[in-house]
């Protein structure tokens, strides 16, 4: 059970300056204008908004900080920004653009010393480690870390990696199941719970929400302290407030 309240976080996956959504990290379709979507979510009760520039790393470029600035100016809630963050300077620039927290993924695997330097510079609460994972039965947790937007397997156990990142002082972990992403079949509770229990950090469940009970399961059974979703919000299947009302009805603490 979270210490204060369960956070509901709509996620804006950004490609080419537009919000997109796919399944298993591919087959992307256009969903919305990022500023309009972010403003609607902010007004609609989101506790935080995630802005993930999902092709920055594989395209070898930095995050679209101009888009971050526009989104940050349009919302009244914290904004977590990720995608293409490869250096301490990138973290600084994201914060300067309006990010309240910065998510690091591929670079955290390739350069953990950069993560430690960023924690030392900006503090734990500014750093989120995003871990894309897929099934691998040969590993202890049966989940393998993938990098480069879920394209490159690393051979690294996801729970072990999360624990290592916790040791560097990061504030939160954002695990996303590649297998569950966009399927609406539910979060990967084994992944979420394994990382939450082993790392001791607040975990944001991500990838696979399709029913209201999936959000509850992520907290009650996956030990997450926040729930992130994209498709169900972008395409109007649920509103943020509907998710919160459902969680409250099931006796989870939320901020309405």
Q: How would you state the average pLDDT, rounded?
A: 91
Q: Summarize the biggest pleated sheet.
A: 12 strands, mixed
Order of helices and strands: EEEHEHEHEHHEEEHEHEHEHH
Instruction: Report the end-to-end length measured between terminal Cα atoms.
Output: 18 Å
The CATH top-level class label: Alpha Beta
Structural class: alpha/beta
Short description:
With 256 residues, the protein is α/β, with parallel strands linked by helices. The chain contains 10 helices and 12 strands. A hairpin with a 2-residue loop joins strand 2 and strand 3.
Furnish the topology, listing elements before pairings:
Blueprint: E1 7-15, E2 18-23, E3 26-32, H1 34-43, E4 49-53, H2 65-74, E5 79-82, H3 88-96, E6 101-104, H4 106-110, H5 112-122, E7 127-135, E8 143-147, E9 152-157, H6 158-167, E10 172-177, H7 189-199, E11 204-205, H8 212-220, E12 226-229, H9 231-234, H10 240-249
Parallel strand pairs: 1-4, 1-12, 4-5, 5-6, 6-7, 7-10, 11-12
Antiparallel strand pairs: 1-2, 2-3, 7-8, 8-9
Description:
The chain has helices at 34-43, 65-74, 88-96, 106-110, 112-122, 158-167, 189-199, 212-220, 231-234, 240-249; strands spanning 7-15, 18-23, 26-32, 49-53, 79-82, 101-104, 127-135, 143-147, 152-157, 172-177, 204-205, 226-229. The chain is an alpha/beta fold and 256 residues long. It has one domain (7-249): Aldolase class I (TIM Barrel, Alpha-Beta Barrel). A hairpin with a 4-residue loop joins β8 and β9 (152-157). α1 packs parallel to α2 and α8 (212-220) packs across α10 (240-249). The radius of gyration is 16 Å and the shape is globular. The two termini are 18 Å apart. The model has no long low-confidence stretch (mean pLDDT 91).
């Amino acid at each position: 059970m979270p210490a204060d309240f369960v956070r509901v976080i709509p996620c804006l996956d950004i490609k080419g300056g537009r919000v997109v959504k796919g399944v298993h990290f591919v087959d992307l379709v256009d969903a919305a204008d990022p500023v309009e979507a972010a403003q609607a979510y902010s007004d609609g009760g989101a506790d935080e908004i995630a802005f993930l520039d999902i092709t920055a790393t594989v395209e070898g470029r930095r995050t679209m900080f101009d888009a971050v600035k526009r989104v940050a100016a349009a919302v009244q809630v914290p904004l977590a920004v990720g995608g293409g963050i490869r250096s301490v300077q990138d973290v600084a620039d994201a914060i300067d653009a309006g990010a309240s927290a910065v998510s690091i993924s591929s670079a955290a695997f390739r350069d953990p010393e950069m993560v430690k330097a960023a924690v030392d510079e900006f503090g734990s609460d500014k750093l989120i480690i995003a871990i894309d994972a897929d099934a691998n039965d040969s590993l202890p947790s049966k989940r393998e870390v993938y990098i480069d937007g879920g394209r490159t397997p690393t051979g690294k156990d996801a729970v072990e990696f999360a624990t290592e990142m916790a040791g560097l002082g990061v504030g939160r972990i954002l695990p996303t199941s590649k297998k569950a992403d966009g399927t609406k079949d539910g979060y990967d509770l084994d992944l979420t719970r394994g990382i939450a229990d082993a790392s001791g950090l607040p975990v944001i469940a991500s990838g696979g929400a399709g029913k209201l009970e999936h959000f509850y399961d992520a907290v009650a059974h996956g030990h997450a302290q926040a729930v992130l979703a994209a498709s169900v919000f972008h395409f109007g299947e649920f509103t943020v407030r509907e998710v919160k009302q459902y969680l409250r009805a099931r006796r989870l603490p939320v901020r309405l």
